[in-house]
């Protein structure tokens, strides 16, 4: 079986520092940005925003740690976090300090409440600095602008509590940016050439701007400023490395720092020349984007494909060894782990601790030839994740018919060490799907990558907004929708009535009428949700353009149009339906119990659900034990999963915006199925109020009992190629099933068979219930146990108790 190598000592040191992270927030970025905005207060956003980024890049504190070979810090401290006041004002931390929720400890820092899993600190002087600018930002943030007015009917919609648009929730509180930036362009073209492209257009049109030329002028001017900002940031890092080299007494480290400094000075304007420069250039651009606007999910894309040509040239010239290259890859992903921001406890509970959403894609096919594209960097990425036991970034392994068996073995061994990683993605479904659903060319479809949780996007040529125009506005709460559909449009959780009245379950005389009510409510709520997305897009085009992103995305520089305004080669947006298996099982229950077997009346089942099953436990147990459930290769149950997924897909197909003619449907989630369950009333399948919904496309927890092959057969009842926002299927495998080579072969062959049948994606947690319960009892002994929730992996001991129990409740498969 595949064996992982050991990491170097400095890599091990950095890994432990990250594992024991305590994130210190500082006010530096906020103060620089505030000063810039004050000086440019009346300048239009498309210019004001990159000017502020330039000020940040030219003035912020830079760090180069003694153990680092890949550099880049987001804030003043190692594992530090800054504040983006232009979006969120001064944030929640100063408020927490003022309310006495944070404690000033002996180290001179305020610490967040001890019962919160994520450890945060802030210095008193930084609190004072943030308080000094709080009033300035009170009504000047992008969020405040969006909240000032909403379309008619929005308040009623938000009161339903059926999506992320709920009373008090902002329409826009983080920037758009769920995509794969053009890293390949940055490292192969360089900032100077990109800047020159923009400047040439400006020079050619000076004093002669007619019609749409003015829009292009504003874009190209913003692009010049953005390129200058990126250049000065990278150049200052080069100078910092050289200054550190000058003071270094160790000749080996001195030479290393000197080389790093000289290389950074080069790539501040020019294309990368070496593997190290390609990796460092990628990190520098990612850092620049984070400083520019704290984009929430900038994925690294096909890292092994755009860095391999540089490593290949280095190996052929003798400039580097494979072991040295592996250390660079280790350092790259450890540095990526440093980009996690401070987050309030409720977000950490939902999205996990340490999840940066810098999704990285490896494997797949060559975009020009269609041949398998596996290369040494593909293995290096898995080596890094496996041997360092990193749960982040998420790694997707693209599978094709010619994926080497050795890579399969390496990937499965990685899954045994790091739960849920890699995600297995099927090229044979996704590539044709992109061409059919999104009109990608064959070459661009072959070059797809994954971002965020599961979302499928183009690489450096696509502005896909797959998590809603402004994340996290992607999810419509379909469990709530179902309850409303059988309760005359009333949400039983909060008693709110929507305008659409569908009747009560006990008034519906046939199963077809039940489905008609569900479909009508799905359409009503989904379209309302997307209407608000479209309003956000309207605001974004003026108030939140993205020059820093646009310089790298194919189509923007060519057309002179910002990516948020449709400049990218491909444009779409999308969302996800979490837990449709809960709806499918609820439909099956109604069909089986009321209309087919007549084991209870519609009124009896309705009353049981509205009573949260209190007083109806015998009926609930009969439903759980007797009614067929999705996930067991039973056509009776799977028919309803196909129907509800088809309904969702059809509704998405009716939606569009100014920028995009395509709204993509997805079937994935972070741990949204747990969070949605908190405010979803009981459902007819036997689920009680507050319990999680089914996760992603997985069967409801514990309802599958016929093994993984049956789950695969069930999920293939629907056409996966229709869901180009991504699909997630979680399966838990008992470790004893993979204790030898024969078990690994079985898992590989079973996955291949699933993919041939039409499956798009699967991810495996290789862990027993016994181990999970032991970890709950003794967290310290299992601190590095990684599991996959749905859209992210996490250290099990850092999950909320509800998320932990959700994992334990899933079926434990053998084969």
TrEMBL record:
PROSITE patterns: GLY_RADICAL_1 (PS00850), GLY_RADICAL_2 (PS51149), PFL (PS51554). GO terms for molecular function: lyase activity. It holds the Pfam family Gly_radical. Keywords: Lyase, Organic radical. It is an enzyme of class 4 (lyase). Residues 9-688 form the PFL domain. Residues 684-706 are annotated as: Disordered. It comes from the Bacteria. This is Trans-4-hydroxy-L-proline dehydratase. It comes from Sporomusa acidovorans (strain ATCC 49682 / DSM 3132 / Mol). The gene is pflD_3.
